[in-house]
Design a protein that fits this description.
The strands form three sheets. Strands 10, 11, 12, 13, 14, 15, 16 and 17 form an eight-stranded mixed β-sheet that branches. The protein has a six-stranded mixed β-sheet with strand order 1-4-9-8-7-2, sandwiched between helices. A three-stranded antiparallel β-sheet has the order 3-6-5, with helices on one face. The protein has about 550 residues and is α+β, with helices and mostly antiparallel strands. Strand 5 and strand 6 form a beta hairpin. Helices cover about 35% and strands about 20% of the residues.
Length: about 550
């Protein structure tokens, strides 16, 4: 596991009531958290090498569009980390930690960059400052156990309010002390400045700056340089090629994965279910090794297959969040590079030969050339057998792996042009064209499968006894209908599903998560469920389990 504690504010239980208007941060450095009687504020000065302005990078544009759709609950996108500093090495003083935070801000230009809001008909830009001051919260604790608890509490408080994107620095920082020793550093980041990978780079660099006084050579690229490259001719050609993949995928899939509401929405409307399963962690690794694919592919395929089965589709379309860091110059860049990819999987073609008489699902979107297919998707009453499915879940994995690679390669594009593509196709076919179904594997590194014989069915069944489930959070507004997040918790996988309760009521959220566990655990035990039984699995999975 990467060092530090991970949080996405919208997935933290009890961080802020979903129907509460987030507090607006007034000055750079953010709001002073309440509830800690020994808080003080310290100002640190930073001096970078340059200032400048540029358009937003495509990753920044993508998250900015998501922020606008989610506001005022956009604190959902805040990213937090806790760095323990008392577990090893020499004691760290407050001046040393503050100096390290100043050097971290100087090293990474994104931490000195704020949003330039546009005129009504324009696009925002980014403004890099060469100097400024950052306010840091310093909290005293009585002892190490209290310090750890206070670090988590402070993380929650700093994460619970939206950033003032034009006025506030995109990082909130805090230190927890016991006596004269700093025990923890807390960072909360604006998603315009960092994605999950970038947050881990910052944790690594802060640790090195505290312990050694240096984090090594500076990053090979900067957000301003990347933005200028993407908006140049070569970048736009790459973006156009990516959008050609999206158009072909849109035309091969139903317009959306969740076409019709099926329930009265709850208040708040969006619920997050969270399943924590040691058995799933072992099973994912076993299935991935047996079929020579990644664990992320196993989870993505399970998600896609269950969504398609539940909604009566033969073809699944899911939007995985892609890190876009394969280029060496981008691996240590602190910025938001992640963008949506488009993963399309025809379950019938992927699982085996299709019967000649088996009907093809109406996609609702015409092919680029040739006759227009019927509008709309198959009704939920259309069974998977009628769609001509054959084979089992694991038969999908080879084709799914290839489809995932195509999705990852086509995840760098201008979101303005992506929006235009969706609007054009939606107008052309008279219905909203968007999967509204996303997948985010937030693990930076997959655990290697332990050596030795694979887990038996009995061992996996025993591990499932440790599975826990709950509804830790709700939201009033999320710009999707199905958002699956994967993280690690000790030896377990934690899978969170945030869904629109008009399309997936709480009982369906629970069923999807338990069905995913059962599907992958059964496959690891050597009995992968037939694709024709996935719809039934969504009804029976979980049973009387808590």
């Amino acid at each position: 596991m990467p060092e530090g504690t991970v949080t996405v504010a919208g997935l933290r239980a009890g961080s802020v009531p979903a129907d509460t208007e987030p507090e607006k941060a007034g000055t750079p450095g953010g709001p002073v958290p309440s509830g800690a009687c020994s808080d003080t504020r310290r100002e640190i000065a930073f001096h970078g090498e340059r200032s400048g302005r540029a358009p937003l990078t495509w990753g920044q544009r993508a998250i900015w569009h998501a922020i606008r759709r989610t506001a005022p609950n956009d604190h959902y996108f805040n990213i937090g980390r806790v760095l323990p500093l008392a577990d090893r090495g020499r004691p760290v003083t407050v001046p040393e930690a503050l100096g390290a935070l100043a050097r971290l801000t100087e090293r990474h230009e994104s931490l000195r960059t704020r949003l330039l809001l546009p005129p009504p008909d324009g696009e925002p830009a980014q403004s890099l400052a060469d100097a400024g001051t950052l306010s840091v919260t310093v909290t005293r604790a009585a002892g190490l156990p209290e310090a750890a608890a206070e670090a988590e509490a402070l993380l929650g408080r700093l994460s619970a309010t939206r950033f003032d994107y034009a006025a506030e620095w995109p990082v909130r920082a805090a230190l927890i002390t016991v006596g004269d020793r700093v025990t923890h550093a807390v960072l909360v980041l604006c998603h315009l400045a960092a994605d999950g990978h970038a947050a881990e780079v910052l944790v690594r660099d802060l640790r090195l700056l505290v312990r050694r006084g240096s984090a090594g050579p500076p990053p090979a690229s900067t957000p301003l340089d990347l933005a200028r490259d993407q908006h140049a001719a070569v970048g736009r050609r790459r973006g156009a090629a990516a959008l050609a993949h999206w158009e072909a995928g849109y035309r091969a899939a139903p317009p959306t994965m969740f076409p019709d509401p099926c329930a009265q929405p709850r208040t708040p409307r969006f619920w997050t279910g969270r399943l924590v399963s040691p058995a799933l962690a072992r099973a994912v690794g076993t299935v991935a090794a047996a079929h020579r694919v990644s664990g992320s592919t196993v989870l993505l395929t399970a998600s896609a297959a269950l969504v398609a089965a539940g909604e009566g589709h033969r073809t699944a379309a899911v939007m995985p969040i892609v890190g876009n860091r394969t280029a060496g110059a981008l691996r240590d860049l602190v910025s938001t590079l992640s963008q949506d990819g488009l993963f399309v999987l025809d379950l019938a073609e992927a699982s085996g030969p299709r019967e000649a008489s088996g009907p093809r699902e109406a996609s609702g979107v015409a092919e680029p050339h040739g006759p227009t297919e019927p509008s709309g998707t198959t009704e939920p009453s259309c069974t998977t057998e009628a769609a001509g499915l054959a084979g089992t879940f694991t038969d999908l994995l080879p084709a799914a792996y290839r489809s995932a690679l195509r999705a990852y390669r086509a995840a760098v594009y201008d979101p303005v042009e992506w929006d235009a593509l969706g609007e054009r196709l939606s107008a052309e076919y008279g219905t909203d064209v968007h999967p509204y179904c996303c997948f985010n594997d937030m693990r930076l590194v997959e655990r290697a499968l332990p050596e030795g014989p694979r887990a038996t069915g009995a061992e996996l069944a025993e591990a499932r006894r440790r599975t826990t489930f709950g509804f830790p959070a709700t939201q009033d507004r999320v710009a999707c209908r199905y958002c699956l997040h994967v993280t690690e918790e000790g030896d377990a996988l934690a899978v969170s599903l945030t869904a629109d309760t008009a399309y997936l009521p709480p009982e369906a959220i629970r069923a999807h998560l338990y069905a995913m566990e059962e599907l992958i655990v059964a496959s690891a035990a050597g009995t992968p469920p037939p694709l024709t039984e996935l719809r039934t699995l969504l009804v029976t999975a979980g049973g009387d389990r808590p």
